[in-house]
Amino acid sequence: MANSCSAKSIFSPSFTSKSQPTSRSSNSSQLLSFLHSTNPTRPIATFKLSSSSSSSQYNCDQKQSLSRRRLAANVISSALKTAESRETKSFTEDDVGSDQTRPTILVSEKLGEAGLQLLRSFGNVDCSYDLSPEQLCEKISSCDALIVRSGTKVTRQVLEAAKGRLKVVGRAGVGIDNVDLQAATEVGCLVVNAPTANTVAAAEHGIALIAAMARNVAQADASMKAGKWQRNKYVGVSMVGKTLAVMGFGKVGSEVARRAKGLGMNVIAHDPYAPADRARAIGVELVSFDQVISTADFISLHMPLTPTTNKIFNDETFGRMKNGVRIVNVARGGVIDEEALVRALDSGKVAQAALDVFTQEPPPTDSKLVQHENVIVTPHLGASTKEAQEGVAIEIAEAVVGALKGELSATAVNAPMVPQEVLTELAPYVVLAEKLGRLAVQLVAGGSGIKSVKVVYRSARDPDDLDTRLLRAMITKGIIEPISDSYINLVNADFTAKEKGLRISEERVVIDTSPDMPVHSIQVLVSNVDSKFASAISENGEISVEGRVKYGVPHLTGVGSFEVDVSLEGNLILCRQIDQPGVIGKVGNILGEANTNVSFMSVGRTVRRNKAIMAIGVDEEPEKETLRKIGTVPAIEEFVFLKL
Ligand SMILES: NC(=O)c1ccc[n+]([C@@H]2O[C@H](COP(=O)([O-])OP(=O)(O)OC[C@H]3O[C@@H](n4cnc5c(N)ncnc54)[C@H](O)[C@@H]3O)[C@@H](O)[C@H]2O)c1
Ligand SMILES: O=C(O)[C@H](O)COP(=O)(O)O
C-alpha cells in the first residue's frame, strides 16, 4: 500500500531530460530477453532482470505455476478478509493443530452435537449460553465466528464490539431478523444461515397447530388434567373442505400447503414473489392479499419479518377477514399486531389462534394473548425436532467453517452468491482487479478527490456469461484501502464505495478472442482527477491502467496511452523517458547498486526516439535516495513508485 506522505513529497516531481545518450549495450548484463514490436504503442521490449545478480536466472514456469496455485487458494479468502485478517491469512487445515492459531467460535445457543463436533475439529469452540448483551459484547472481540439461533440479538453494538475480528455470523436456522444485517455488511462480517434443514419441522409444527387448534387438543388436555371431563365444551371444527390461506409460499409455506391438501383442505396462497407455476404444481392458487384474507377459514403465516410484513395483521386487516377465522403463526411474532389480535379474539372476529412465535420471546407471563382461552401457544418450537436440529447444526457448522477458510457459503445472506466454478475461474482476475484498483488510486495526485471510476472488461464472452461482482468488489477494495482506514471485502465493498461517494460504473466490451478466458483485459479509468504521473492520463483525459492475466499471473499491460507488459508482483516503478539508448541500463544500475531486485521490466513507446514508458517491477521498496537518483537520470522526465 502506498505511503501517501512519501508518495506526495518524493514521487510527484517531474524530471526533465538533460539528454545524455548511453549505449544500449551497457544494459546487456541485465537483459535476459528482448522483443521488438512494429506497433508503436505495443511493448517494444520485455526484460526479465536481476539487478543483484546477473546469473540468477528467473524460472518463469515454476514461479507462474506456484503463483497460479497461490492465487486459486487465496481468491475467496482475500475477497472475504476483514479488518483483523487483513494482514493475516484465512484459517486452513494447517491451523488446526495449535490452540493459538485455531479460530475461536462462540456458540451462544444450543446446537446439535454433530455440528459442534465439526466445529471442534476446526476451531476452539466456546459454548456460552444465556449471555447478557453486555457479556456478548465483551466476549465477541476475541471471536472469529459466532453461531446463534433466534434467541441472540446480534445488534450493531455487538458487531462493532467485535472490532473487526469477527468474520462470520452463522444463524443456525432460517430467520435472520435477530441479526443487524446492515451493520454486519458495514463492518464486512459475513452472515450465513441454515435455510433448509428445519423446513419440514416447521411445516409439521404448523400442521400440528392447525389440527390441535381445530380440535381444542391443548385446552381439552388441560381440562382433563384439572380433573374435568368436558366433552360438550370442546367440540371442534373439521379441516376437510375448509379454505386454508398460506401467507408466504416459500419453503415452509409450500410444505404446509402440500400437507394441508392431504388433509382435504382447499389451499390458496399469497406471496408477491413466488412463481405461480410452483404453486400450481402442487395444486395451489396464488391470489391477492385481499382475496386471501377475505375468503380463508384458516390463515397460516409463513413470511419473513421485514419492514413490509411488520404488523401486517392488524385491526384493519383483521376487520377484512371472515368472521370466526382461525390463525396460525409459526413465522415471526412481529408480523401480527398482538394487541389487535387480542381485540379480534375478544370480539369473536378471530375464533382461535395458534402461536409458536411472539414479538417478545419469551412473552411476559401475564400476556393476554398467551393467557387467552381461545389461543394455544408453544415456545418457538417450530424447528425443534431432533432431526431438524442435527441437520441445522451440520448445515451451519459447514457454512461457518467454510467462511473461516475463506470460502463463500452457498447460504451467504449479505454477500453476492458466486458459484464455486466461477470463483475458481476468476481467481487470477480477482488479484488483477485489486492490483489495478491499487495502482489507479496511487496515480491520482494528492488533493484530487476520486468520485468516478469506470471499469471496462474486455471479453469474448456474452455479457450475461460473466459475473463481475467479485471483480468490482476487488477493484473497490484496491481503490479505497490505500487512501482510507476502511477495510473492504466482498461483503462491504459496494456499501463503502457508496458511503464514500465513489461511483463505480462498469462497461462490457465483447471482443473477438478466445472465450476460454472469462476476461481478456480489465481497464480501470479514473475521471476528473489530476495524476502525479502525467503519462498515466489517457487521450480521453482519464487515468487509465489496464491489465491482463497471462499464464495465470496478473500483468499490467497499459498505462495511459502506453502499452507495457509487466508482471504485477512486488512493487512497481513507472518512468517516462525520452526514448534513447542507455536509460534502461542506468536505472538498472542504480537499482542494482542499492541491492533492489528487479523482477520484470518492460518498455512501451508511442513514437520511436520520442516518448517511452518503462515499467520496472521491484521486489523491495527502494530507499528514497535510490528513487531520487533515478530522477536524476538524463532522459527521465517523470517517474512514480507504486506499491502493489
Ligand atoms: N417457528 C419456527 O421455529 C420456524 C422455523 C422455520 C422457519 N420459521 C420462519 O418461517 C418463515 C418462513 O421460512 P421459510 O424457510 O419458508 O422462508 P422462505 O424464504 O423460503 O419463504 C418466505 C416466503 O415469504 C415470501 N414473502 C416475503 N414477503 C412477503 C409478503 N409481504 N407477503 C407474502 N409473502 C411474502 C417470500 O417471497 C418467500 O417465498 C421465516 O420467517 C422463518 O424465520 C420459523
Ligand atoms: O427461523 C428459524 O429457523 C426458526 O425460527 C427457528 O429458530 P430457532 O433456531 O431459534 O429454533
UniProtKB/TrEMBL annotation:
Subcellular location: Plastid, Chloroplast
Any GO MF annotation of the entry: NAD binding
Any GO BP annotation: L-serine biosynthetic process
Residue spans of biased composition, Polar residues class: 1-13
Region entry Disordered, spans: 1-31
Keywords: Amino-acid biosynthesis, Chloroplast, NAD, Oxidoreductase, Plastid, Serine biosynthesis, Transit peptide
Pathway linked to the protein: Amino-acid biosynthesis; L-serine biosynthesis; L-serine from 3-phospho-D-glycerate: step 1/3
Origin: domain of life: Eukaryota
Broadest EC class assigned to this enzyme: oxidoreductase
InterPro entries: ACT-like_dom_sf, ACT_dom, Ado_hCys_hydrolase_NAD-bd, ASB_dom_sf, D-isomer_2_OHA_DH_cat_dom, D-isomer_DH_CS, D-isomer_DH_CS1, D-isomer_DH_NAD-bd
Any Pfam family: 2-Hacid_dh
PROSITE patterns documented for this protein: ACT, D_2_HYDROXYACID_DH_1, D_2_HYDROXYACID_DH_2, D_2_HYDROXYACID_DH_3
EC number: 1.1.1.95
Segments forming domain ACT: 572-644
The reaction(s) this protein catalyses: (2R)-3-phosphoglycerate + NAD(+) = 3-phosphooxypyruvate + NADH + H(+)
Family label: Belongs to the D-isomer specific 2-hydroxyacid dehydrogenase family.
PANTHER family per UniProt: D-3-PHOSPHOGLYCERATE DEHYDROGENASE 2, CHLOROPLASTIC, FORMATE DEHYDROGENASE 1
Protein name as annotated: D-3-phosphoglycerate dehydrogenase
Lineage: Eukaryota, Viridiplantae, Streptophyta, Embryophyta, Tracheophyta
